[in-house]
Amino acid sequence: IFFTPEIIKSPAVPLPQVVDKCIMNCPIDYRRRLYSNIVLAGGTTCFQNYQSRLKRGVQEIVDARLQQAEAHTGTRPKDLPVQVFDHRKSQRYAAWLGGAFVASEPRFAPLFKTKKEYEEEGPACMR
Predict the structure, then answer these.
(1) Beta-ladder partners of 39
(2) d(Cα 61, Cα 67) in Å, to the nearest integer?
(3) Given 3, 35, 67, 86, which residue has the most CB atoms within 10 angstroms?
(4) H-helix or E-strand containing 127?
(5) Cβ-contact 83, 55 below 8 angstroms
(6) Is 117's pLDDT higher than 70?
(7) CA angle 110, 116, 120 (to 5 degrees)
(8) Per-residue confidence (pLDDT) for residue 53, from 0 to 100
(9) How far, in Å, are 44, 89, 98 from residue 104 at the CA level?
(10) What is the pLDDT of residue 90?
(11) Which residues contact 37 (CB under 8 A, 6 or more apart)?
């Protein structure tokens, strides 16, 4: 579904196109670095072959764009390699690590609620 949403007749856009569009919406000076530093995070990115399929899909889009540029200008632009990184060992705990990181920020401390506050006020103290 991520790569071929049309198999379920979904109007969704394939993930490689979404990633490409996001990068193309960034300033031109950053695009080359962004294409070479796509990082996967989240549970569904642990599916088998997810990383290689995303890399292949984005690379095909980039290569097609380079071919169009070559046809238009007559000179081939510099190759643009796509790199997709996954961190299989830490992906399983990514949500916990993100929460721990946010909780360690000093600006987050005033938002803490103690057990005593919760027992006194109940869930309303979280508003």
Answers:
(1) 85
(2) 10
(3) 35
(4) none
(5) yes
(6) yes
(7) 105
(8) 94
(9) 27, 22, 10
(10) 67
(11) 83, 85
